[in-house]
Design goal:
InterPro entries: DUF3105
Number of domains: 2
Biased composition (Basic and acidic residues): 16-28
Largest sheet: 6 strands, mixed
Organism: Streptomyces laculatispora
Protein name: DUF3105 domain-containing protein
CATH class of the largest domain: Alpha Beta
CATH architecture of the largest domain: 3-Layer(aba) Sandwich
Helix content: 40-55%
Strand order of the largest sheet: 1-6-5-3-4-2
Region (Disordered): 1-31
Number of strands: 6
CATH topology of the largest domain: Glutaredoxin
Shape: elongated
Number of helices: 4
Length: 216
């Protein structure tokens, strides 16, 4: 009997060792699965949170843009029933800078064009008819404001900028039938004016060209 016990002991030990190895392997696999699942959940959660943040940010931007387009620009002046005849003579406009009325048959290039010298008003009005925003300034404007507004115009198709020395205020923004005076380029209404009136609902000829006209 003693001899039989000795014969079975090595086999039993091997089975126990094998079972222990299998147990450890199952434990390792379980830990690996837990780590993989946890990492996957973290990635998905990150994507959900990040995606949600980006979507919320985009929604907020859309809401802000919609609000800017639908809300009146505080302090702006408006003119209705402006004539739109093409003429080949100087026009005596009732406002300065002009924001509508009879004008030259050729527009001033307004594809993000910044002019450092005065431009013909009759050509600029034609640009407004095409949906451009015209930024104007005189010698009393601060160089920093002129620079900042110039940078905005340079980055915005359907806009142009030029000096108008005889205008009443240092900085003015003009669109067809719309005009706004601001004291600084950092005025929040500048961005609102651009958002609302670059190819905005006031445009008599939306989509008409802003290049191929006069470039001075």
């Amino acid at each position: 009997m003693t001899s039989a016990k000795k014969q079975h002991t090595p086999a039993t030990a091997r089975r126990a060792k094998l079972e222990e190895a299998r147990r450890k392997e199952r434990a390792r696999e379980r830990r690996s699965r837990i780590i993989t699942i946890t990492a996957g959940v973290a990635v998905v959660a990150g994507l959900v949170v990040g995606g949600g943040y980006l979507m919320n940010t985009a929604d907020e931007q859309d809401k802000a843009e919609t609000a800017a387009k639908s809300s009146p620009v505080q302090g702006e002046k408006s003119w209705d029933k402006l004539s739109r005849e093409h003429v080949d003579k100087k026009v005596d406009y009732p406002m300065n800078p002009p924001v509508g009325g009879d004008h030259s048959q050729v527009w001033m290039n307004c594809d993000a064009d910044v002019y450092t010298e005065a431009i013909p008003k009759e050509n600029a009005v034609h640009s407004l008819e095409h949906g451009a925003v015209w930024v104007t300034y005189n010698g009393k404007a601060k160089p920093a404001d002129v620079k900042k507004l110039g940078e905005r115009v340079s980055a915005t198709p359907y806009s142009l900028m030029s000096p108008v020395e005889d205008q009443a205020a240092p900085l003015m923004l003009n669109a067809w039938g719309k005009q706004l005076t601001v004291k600084s380029a950092t005025d929040a209404r500048v961005a609102q004016f651009f958002t609302k009136y670059v190819q905005g609902p006031q445009t008599p000829e939306p989509g008409a060209a802003c290049s191929g006209g006069i470039a001075k």
